[in-house]
Amino acid sequence: MVSSAGFEPITLRFQVQSINYYTTLPAVNVQRMQRPSFWLGGGGKIFRRISDYVGLAVFSMLCCFWPLGIAAFYLSQKTHKASVKGDFSGAISASRQALWLAVFSIIFGIVTYISAIAVLVSYLTGKPP
């Protein structure tokens, strides 16, 4: 059954003390929701969503200096686990460390690539470095 707005009602099934109940909620607009940037935590405090920098960590692990990238990826996963558990101070600390390790990995990788190209060009032209 579709309502006049074109939305289908949602049917819920739940059990209370061995008695089954069925109920139909009114038609609602079910849309994909974005992750909130703020949420209400315990004690009524408002927390900001903590970035885990997993994309940056994967990029630094695959394209730059992989040992630091692996450490950054580990810390990004630690950030996510800590924020799920509610340890926001630990999550913020791990997030900051993941960001810095990923950035250092990218910088070190770029410096390594540039110096390798310089040595290769110097070797192929016959001039000593």
UniProtKB/TrEMBL annotation:
TM regions (residue ranges): 53-75, 98-124
Main subcellular location: membrane
Q: Give the subcellular location.
A: Membrane
Keywords from the UniProt entry: Membrane, Transmembrane, Transmembrane helix
Pfam families membership: CD225
Kindly indicate where the leader peptide sits in this chain: none
The family database entries (InterPro entries) matched by this protein are listed as: CD225/Dispanin_fam (IPR007593)
* UniProt GO cellular component terms: membrane
Q: What family does this chain come from, according to its entry?
A: Belongs to the CD225/Dispanin family.
Entry's PANTHER family? TRANSMEMBRANE PROTEIN 91, UPF0338 PROTEIN
User: Any idea what this protein is called?
Assistant: Transmembrane protein 91
Q: What is the source species?
A: Erpetoichthys calabaricus (Rope fish)
